UniProtKB/TrEMBL annotation, chain A:
Family the entry assigns: Belongs to the complex I subunit 6 family.
Protein name (record): NADH-quinone oxidoreductase subunit J
EC top class, as a word: translocase
Organism lineage: Bacteria, Bacillati, Actinomycetota, Actinomycetes, Pseudonocardiales
Keywords per UniProt: Cell membrane, Membrane, NAD, Quinone, Transmembrane, Transmembrane helix
Localization: Cell membrane
Physiological role: NDH-1 shuttles electrons from NADH, via FMN and iron-sulfur (Fe-S) centers, to quinones in the respiratory chain. Couples the redox reaction to proton translocation (for every two electrons transferred, four hydrogen ions are translocated across the cytoplasmic membrane), and thus conserves the redox energy in a proton gradient.
UniProtKB/TrEMBL annotation, chain B:
Name of the gene encoding the protein in the UniProt record: nuoK
Reactions listed under catalytic activity: a quinone + NADH + 5 H(+)(in) = a quinol + NAD(+) + 4 H(+)(out)
E.C. number: 7.1.1.-
Role noted for this protein: NDH-1 shuttles electrons from NADH, via FMN and iron-sulfur (Fe-S) centers, to quinones in the respiratory chain. The immediate electron acceptor for the enzyme in this species is believed to be a menaquinone. Couples the redox reaction to proton translocation (for every two electrons transferred, four hydrogen ions are translocated across the cytoplasmic membrane), and thus conserves the redox energy in a proton gradient.
Protein name (record): NADH-quinone oxidoreductase subunit K
Family membership noted in the UniProt record: Belongs to the complex I subunit 4L family.
Subcellular locations according to the entry: Cell membrane; Membrane
Organism: Kibdelosporangium persicum
Transmembrane segments: 6-22, 34-53, 59-85
Taxon lineage: Bacteria, Bacillati, Actinomycetota, Actinomycetes, Pseudonocardiales
Length: 187, 101
């Protein structure tokens, strides 16, 4: 019984704060509304006895949203939310497409005869996940590692303003750095 | 709790994210919409694991992939935003419509 109540509470909370993300006036508030939505959604994962993944989502989202808040404040137009903010285009079309998607997905969810449960959850799902990742799903883990590494490199390359190749040439063999302003010691 | 309840919840999250990704002008707000959509995948994958195939860890692995996709999306999104903002002072999608057909 309390499972049911907790699920509806978390689901309503996640959907409500998810809507709030696009309705509040300040992007900082939007970030924390998104954080609340993620934490409510992680609550439903915890109800499925996925303790590790639920806690992982909560911890990761707190970190991610706090970092995101910094970027939000960098790029937002309405820092303190002192004025009403609306930065949307094609609002009606978007609402229609989103509502249509929801209606379609709900219809499919209710009409499809879903398969019945195959097997029982293991006593320790975290151990099962770890064994899968280090065994039959090792390829997934390797690809994720490569993707994360590529992301690190690519995001640094994209975000760098002027790197050493801009200053010392493609072969890094320039005697003097090609800087817009001369400076530094003995240059 | 049933699979359908979880999936409808995930569909609601996905639709809200879709609305955000389609309607917002600010690049960072679009990323928030995308994150909500990936979050729906997380909920749906966890529900499929628990209600359909709990004996194998496939659903849990899918949750892990979705969480990673979220982190990658945010890192690359902010890197692209930083790059285009630095180059052209653009932080709205309407100002970066060069490839519009």
């Amino acid at each position: 019984m309390w499972h049911q109540m907790a699920f509806w509470l978390c689901a309503a909370g996640a959907v409500g704060t998810g809507i709030a993300v696009f309705r509040v006036d300040s992007m900082a508030r939007a970030t924390f509304a998104l954080l609340a939505s993620f934490i409510f959604a992680a609550g439903t994962i915890l109800l499925l006895r996925l303790t590790y993944l639920g806690v992982l989502v909560v911890l990761m989202m707190i970190m991610e949203m706090v970092i995101m808040a910094v970027f939000m404040i960098m790029y937002m137009m309405n820092p303190a939310g002192l004025m009403p903010m609306s930065m949307v285009h094609n609002k009606i079309g978007s609402v229609v497409i989103a509502a249509g998607t929801f209606a379609l997905l709900t219809a499919v969810i209710l009409l499809v005869p879903w398969p019945s449960r195959n097997g029982e959850p293991p006593p320790d799902p975290t151990r099962a996940l770890g064994e899968a990742l280090m065994g039959s799903k090792m390829l997934v883990m390797m690809v994720l590692g490569l993707v994360l590494f590529a992301t690190m490199v690519a995001s640094v390359v994209l975000a760098t303003h002027r790197g050493r190749y801009d200053r010392y040439g493609d072969r890094l063999d320039a005697k003097r750095p090609n800087d817009p302003v001369r400076g530094g010691l003995r240059r | 709790m049933t699979l359908q309840m979880f999936l409808i919840f995930a569909a609601a999250l996905f639709s809200i994210g879709l609305y955000g990704a389609l309607s917002q002008q600010s690049i960072v707000m679009i990323m928030m919409g995308l994150e909500l959509m990936v979050n729906a995948i997380i909920v749906a994958a966890a529900a499929f694991w628990y209600f359909v195939a709990p004996a194998t860890a496939d659903g849990q692995v899918l949750v892990l992939v979705a969480v990673t996709a979220m982190a990658v999306e945010m890192a690359m999104g902010f890197a692209v935003t930083t790059a285009i903002f630095r180059k052209r002072d653009v932080d709205m999608t309407d100002m970066a419509a060069d490839l519009k057909g």
